[in-house]
Design a protein that fits this description.
This protein is an all-alpha fold. It has 16 helices and no strands.
Length: about 300
């Protein structure tokens, strides 16, 4: 600095020997060289700050580097002390270099990618295309925060897929139950279509679904279709209507009506109810013919 130069001139002018002058000049050169190196290191801080080694490093290591740079900047900014020791500057330089050498963000990022990809493999409810796509997203990440976000998304997607699989696994019991069997065909089709769409999603071999909301939508479609299955109510209504019709089959005896009523009440499907009603009506017709012949 100018102050250092002036102080050097003063020291040289006050020197009483050539050896002393030479020593002062050597000290000045050392000081100048140290200051130049210090300024160069400070000038590189933006490059360091934008590097993966810094960005993906732990906070304490980043702080150590920033603190060393701050000490260097203070020396440069306040270097009015003409007696500044080059060794002090060298110590700060060493601190900067050591702190920079301790920045291993790239290695930390790669390690997190490796462990995250292993975690993806252990998410058992994702199909292979989903796993492959999520791994690719992790490998393309440029920060540890992005990797953490991707693994979080993967875990949420895996949970959504599990719920979808659990719902689909109930399909045999649902389709064999009265609410489905005794439902109208359009409601049955709506349920079957929703289940098939879910199976297609679960068994994808390409173009994987990565949006958790779409998986949840597939689940809700099934659940809504299940809630629309009212076969039990329709079976009960069919039985009630059938028993009402029995009361108007006047050619049947009470014993015959009770016989059909039992069969109707025990029926498990609307088809069985209709079958018993048809048999009752046929018997009623036959009984009518017999009564007519007897009456003649």
């Amino acid at each position: 600095t100018d102050a250092q130069r002036e102080k050097l001139k003063e020291q040289i002018n006050n020197s009483d020997s050539r050896e002393d002058i030479k020593q002062k000049i050597e000290q000045a050169k050392a000081l100048n060289n140290a200051m130049e190196q210090l300024k160069n290191e400070v000038g590189h801080k933006d490059n360091v700050h934008s590097s993966g080694n810094y960005l993906n490093e732990d906070p304490d290591k980043k702080k150590a580097y920033d603190d060393a740079i701050k000490r260097a900047e203070d020396i440069i900014k306040n270097s009015t002390d003409p007696n500044l020791n080059p060794h002090d500057i060298t110590n700060v330089l060493n601190q900067i270099n050591q702190a920079k050498d301790n920045l291993h963000g790239d290695d930390l990022l790669q390690h997190q990618k490796d462990t995250s990809n292993q975690s993806i493999d252990n998410l058992n409810h994702l199909n292979q295309p989903q796993k492959d796509a999520l791994k690719q997203a992790i490998n393309d990440a440029t920060s540890r925060e992005q990797v953490a976000e991707k693994i979080k998304e993967a875990q949420a997607l895996d949970e959504a897929m599990k719920q979808l699989e659990d719902q689909v696994s109930k399909d045999p019991s649902i389709t064999s139950g009265s609410p489905f069997i005794n439902e109208d065909s359009d409601k049955q089709k709506a349920y079957n279509d929703a289940v098939q769409a879910a199976k297609d999603l679960i068994n994808q071999t390409s173009n994987p679904t990565l949006d958790k909301q779409k998986v949840e939508e597939a689940l809700h479609n099934i659940q809504n279709a299940v809630n629309d299955l009212h076969g039990d109510d329709k079976l009960n209504q069919s039985k009630q209507d059938a028993n009402d019709q029995l009361t108007h089959l006047n050619n049947l005896t009470e014993e015959q009506k009770n016989h059909f009523k039992t069969l109707i009440d025990d029926a498990e499907t609307r088809g069985d109810v209709n079958k018993q009603v048809a048999l009752a009506k046929r018997l009623d017709d036959d009984m009518g013919i017999i009564k007519g012949l007897i009456g003649e």
